[in-house]
Amino acid sequence: MKLCILDNDILEGHLADTYGSFGALFTQLFARVGARWETTVFHTQLGQYPASFDDFDAVLLTGSRADSFSDAPWVVELRKRVTQLLAEQKKMVGVCFGHQLIALCLGAPVSRAPQGWGAGRMTYDWHRRDLPHSAERAQISLLASHQDQVHELPPGAQLVASSPFCPVASFTVGEHVFCIQPHPEFSEEISAFLMDKRRELLGEDKYTASRQSLVHGHEGEDIARLVVAFLENQTATASVTA
Questions:
Q1: 72 found inside a domain
Q2: Which end of the chain, N or C, is more open, meaning fewer C-beta atoms within 10 Å of its C-beta?
Q3: How many angstroms separate the CA atoms of 95 and 90, rounded?
Q4: How many domains does the chain have?
Q5: Other Cβ atoms closer than 10 A to 200
């Protein structure tokens, strides 16, 4: 499996020294759950893209502090390329900003969430027990960091996960698109760093509660196993192999 990672942001400070990049976080995450993939990272903010997406089996879009509906030239170019990949039914995964941008390209409304920032460990109802590694799942807890949301399912999509705070937290389109709002690649350290940075924006009550939520851990590796199986066309009961 050859995975193209479109990295849409940069890590800052000691996080860059520790983890490298958002693209590297996904490479490390998939390796931890047993995927023996060849991953190549392209930095979209710098205008980096593969010469041909045909050289890759799947494409993953990372998160970003940018808005998926932004008029920034690099975001406009990314939407153009993603729209074409969707038309070709390329296998794609979108996380946070990537989730929102794919939904937007598919025709769903995306904008600021009226309820404000989602931060820290959040729990979602799980609606797709037919997906790999999901037969017994009713809920999942993951690390979130976002102020924008997908407000409606894109045409032709199926809802995977939701919560009162985030009604469209994850969706699929056919067997070629899997998108999720929270961050399976995050560690508690990364989540804490972002909350510390945005403490004033979050407000003291939300900051404190979200910071405290991190002690309960998260299930990011469960999503990684699902993504590996989804991209490798495994069945709902298959184990992760590469």
A1: yes
A2: C
A3: 16
A4: 1
A5: 8
Establish whether 175 is a catalytic residue: no
Q: Would you give the distance in Å from CA 145 to the centre of its chain?
A: 11
Q: 241 falls in which pLDDT band (50, 70, 90)? A: very low
pTM for the whole structure: 0.94
Among 52, 57, 54, which Cα is nearest to 93's?
57
Cα(178)–Cα(9) distance, integer angstroms? 20
Give the H or E element holding residue 228: helix 220-231
Residue of 4, 96, 166, 179 with catalytic role: 96
Q: Residue 192: which CATH number?
A: 3.40.50.880
Residue numbers of the domain that contains 71: 2-231
Q: In this prediction, what percent of the chain has a pLDDT beyond 70?
A: 96
Residue 239 lies in a domain: no
Handedness of CA 217, 163, 170, 126 (dihedral sign): positive
Residue of 4, 133, 185, 219 marked catalytic: 185
Residue 180 has pLDDT above 80, yes or no: yes
Is 96 part of the annotated catalytic residue set? yes
**Catalytic: which of 183, 218, 219, 232?**
183
- 183 has catalytic annotation: yes
Answer yes or no: is 211 within a domain: yes
